Amino acid sequence: MTERSSRYLEWVLRLVIGGVFIYAGWAKRNDGIEFADSVASFRILPSAVIVPFMLSIVPFEIGAGAMVLTGWQKRVGALGLFIMASMYCIALALALARGITVNCGCFGTSAVGTNPWIDLGRDLLLAAGCAVLYRIASRSVAPKPAL
Amino acid sequence: MESASLTGQHPLKPAPVARVGDSGPPGRRTFTRDIAGVMCLSVASLLAGLAINYFRAAPLPLVYQTPEQRLATELTTLVEAPAFRLSDADTIPLAQLRSEIGDPKTIILDARAAPFYQQGHIPGALNLSRDDFAADYRRLRLTLDASKNKSIVVYCSGGDCHDSRMVASALLSLGFAQVRVYTGGWSGWTEAGLPVEK
Predict the structure, then answer these.
(1) Using an 8 Å Cβ cutoff, are B157 and B181 in contact?
(2) Interaxial angle between packed helices A3-27 and A47-70, expressed in degrees from 0 to 180 and rounded to the nearest 10
(3) Higher-confidence residue: B80 or A109?
(4) pTM
(5) pLDDT tens-digit profile of A42-66?
(6) A134: which chain B residues are within 8 Å (Cβ-Cβ)?
(7) Could you report the predicted ipTM of this complex, rounded to two decimals?
């Protein structure tokens, strides 16, 4: 991949991933206990951790999305979103494997009735996009080899 | 001098100072620093989330409760400290209660504790005790929800007993429209020598 095409790809990924996660965080900003119910429905986290985890998701998504979008600490943002998207994928895959009916709540609890397989596919795409973005961003700061 | 010119480094420029996490190859160093950055972002997000929750109009409890647990807590609170909405006009005398016994449009609820209910109750009455309101309400929920438009009569022991008023007020808060209290209670019913169901 040429340097120019790599730069274009990075821009596209930053716009899409940053935009998606800022939107996802913003859509969940007013979700209260319904979002906690959604997190609990995965039956992964103990009840003592569910509310603190759920409270931190919105600032994390908006913060990391803004990092990716603005370019300030974009590698940290991309890596954070990669970890988060991967976590969602694992949680959804486990729920599907165990036959548990879950409401992803990814874009707010009002967006109900989504297909978990579609949610999983979307999160896999996002995780892959974050990984590619992190790779490109890391390469652009890597020191050039000495002569 | 020769090696300095080869690497492009100024001969007088001091060598870079090693920092924490700089011990491995460049790629790993970058990754370690980024992971540390993600951890800082996570902690900052948690603190921000807790602060936002603290300033909410109705902050969430930090320990999660299932919907069932929340309903039980809400119902217990509702019946232990009900907003009394009943007036004297919402009470009925014994004669009127007798006329409504067996009427499919009326539901009679016994607000006494289960052991007293089991010893004997007004025929056809269901047990919705004040003592165990949350559990009883959940047990009778289907029946009660299907009877929102029916007339409900609540009674307890009679005399100074307030359980029937507390249960009736809780039911009004839960959206039941036609709730009345038979103030004579169980004692009034038995003293009149009326039939008893066990």
Answers:
(1) no
(2) 140
(3) B80
(4) 0.65
(5) 889 998 999 999 999 999 999 999 9
(6) 34
(7) 0.88
Contact by Cβ (8 Å): B134, B71:
yes
d(C-alpha A77, C-alpha A60), whole Å: 9
Residues of A (91-120) whose Cβ lies below 8 Å from B: none
Q: Please list every residue in chain A whose beta carbon sits closer than 8 Å to the beta carbon of residue B60.
A: 32-33, 36, 51, 55
Tokens found for residue B130:
């004040």
Residue B173: strand pairing partners:
none
Q: How far apart are CA B110 and CA B131, in angstroms?
A: 12
Cα→Cα distances B14→B7, B11, B19, Å? 14, 8, 15
CATH class for the domain made up of B67-191:
alpha beta
Q: In Å, how far is A59's CA from the nearest CA of chain B? A: 5
Alpha-carbon span B121 to B108, nearest angstrom: 10
pLDDT bin (cut points 50, 70, 90) of residue B6 is very low
Residues of A in contact with B4 (CB under 8 A): none
